[in-house]
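Per your request, structure below.
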């Protein structure tokens, strides 16, 4: 018998197997489990950026309409269990332990197969399929692609709708160095006769998706052509925008910040329209509006203080940084912006740092305890900002920085989501103590 700690340790032990693209191990594992993925209604969400936000918009709107919604997302932000959730509530420790007890012997037997043992991500994906189908059935599951799409372990499902939020230059060591190559991998989630919604805006990437949709006989709905969204007001704590499609023309509010969030929300609204028109779900505009306004996703321009301008944002690739830069220009043009940045060294560091430097007044570079993390020196030397600093101890830096922040200053902590997941639980009690003083 396992306990929760040993169950999670066993899952993480699969990391030694690395990333293993391909679906043969996944199909073998699921066959041993009775193919639970075939017993679910699903929506499949891929893309470089915007997957998590789109998932949370969809989940909140569907919950408002009374549906029980499973989500499978990655990475987790504060606790491992978040990756498998129902209506935003992570799987319990006991259920996660039972899932491992079910899958562990199957996975270990597979070590002798020609395909080898399943990786950590394959194990977690299989756990989610079994959980939502057999242990805690739900009305539908929103599946976020882990890496790429074509060979991702989630790509065994035949969803009601496939969604590709965006294409950007990330994970090139697995997906290729050209935008067309990355688009090809992302388009791999398009299934025969399953409608696909795309928020991709590069012509060369869009062409790849159009060709794949045509090949699969799948109707394609393109953001900017078949539906659109335009900001109508910059709210203090969110966005207001106008959404247009053949089915509606209406105004929506978000509590999440940024033009990119308007685009993600529009993709979610279009997905909900198709779920209603083609799949019989009843959501309605009232529930959609309420769900989108309630939606929040940790680490995405997340405000941590009500008295100071302190935000965390997981801009961990060039496209994420570009969205962050746009938000800084829109919201903080007349404020002093200080950035604390940390990232993994296999990212496109120089382009990311260069873009950030253009809009911030000072920038500090730090590191944290994680595999593949970039060193302070590596980040510092990639920067040419006149007011840059090496931050060897980010905890000490924040402890000293927060009390002396100026009224017109914004502190923005950004980069790796893994970094932010360490910062947030440290910073929140610190801010609470200052608030009480």
């Amino acid at each position: 018998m396992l306990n929760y700690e040993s169950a999670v340790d066993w899952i993480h032990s699969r990391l030694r197997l690395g990333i293993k693209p391909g679906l043969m191990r996944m199909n073998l594992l699921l066959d041993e489990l009775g193919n639970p993925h075939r017993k679910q209604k699903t929506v499949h969400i891929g893309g470089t950026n915007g997957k998590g936000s789109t998932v949370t918009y969809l989940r909140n709107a569907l919950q408002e309409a009374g549906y029980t919604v499973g989500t499978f997302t990655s990475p987790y932000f504060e606790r491992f269990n978040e990756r498998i959730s129902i209506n935003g509530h992570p799987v319990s420790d006991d259920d996660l332990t039972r899932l491992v007890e079910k899958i562990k012997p199957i996975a270990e037997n597979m070590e002798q197969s020609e395909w080898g043992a399943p990786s950590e991500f394959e194990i977690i994906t299989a756990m989610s399929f079994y959980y939502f189908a057999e242990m805690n059935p739900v009305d539908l599951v929103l599946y976020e692609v882990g890496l790429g799409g074509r060979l991702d372990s989630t790509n065994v499902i035949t969803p009601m709708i496939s969604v590709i939020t965006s294409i950007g230059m990330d994970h090139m060591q697995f997906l290729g160095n050209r935008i067309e190559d990355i688009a090809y991998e992302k388009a791999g989630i398009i299934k025969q006769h399953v409608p696909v919604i795309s928020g991709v805006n590069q012509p060369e990437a869009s062409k790849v998706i159009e060709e794949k949709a045509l090949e699969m006989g799948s109707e394609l709905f393109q953001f900017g052509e078949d539906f659109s969204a335009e900001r109508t007001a910059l709210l203090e704590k969110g966005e207001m925008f106008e959404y247009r499609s053949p089915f509606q023309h209406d105004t929506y509010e978000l509590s999440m910040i940024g033009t990119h969030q308007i685009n993600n929300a529009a993709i979610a609204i279009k997905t909900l329209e198709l779920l209603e028109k083609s799949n019989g779900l009843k959501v309605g505009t009232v529930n959609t509006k309420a769900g989108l306004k309630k939606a929040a996703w940790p680490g995405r321009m997340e405000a941590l203080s009500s008295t100071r301008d302190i935000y965390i944002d997981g801009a961990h690739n060039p496209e994420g940084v570009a969205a962050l830069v746009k938000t800084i220009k829109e919201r903080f043009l007349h404020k002093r912006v200080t950035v604390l940045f940390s990232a993994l060294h296999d990212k496109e560091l120089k382009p990311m740092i260069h873009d950030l430097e253009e809009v911030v007044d000072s920038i500090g570079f730090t590191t944290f305890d994680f595999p593949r993390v970039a060193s302070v020196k590596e980040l510092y030397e990639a920067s040419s900002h006149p007011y840059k600093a090496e931050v060897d101890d980010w905890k000490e830096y924040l402890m000293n920085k927060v009390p002396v922040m100026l009224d017109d200053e914004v502190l923005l902590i950004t980069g790796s989501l893994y970094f932010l997941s360490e910062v947030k639980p440290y910073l929140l009690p610190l801010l609470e103590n200052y608030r009480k003083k």
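Residues 4-294 form a domain with the UDP-N-acetylmuramoyl-L-alanine:D-glutamate ligase fold (CATH 3.40.1190.10).

Regards,
D.
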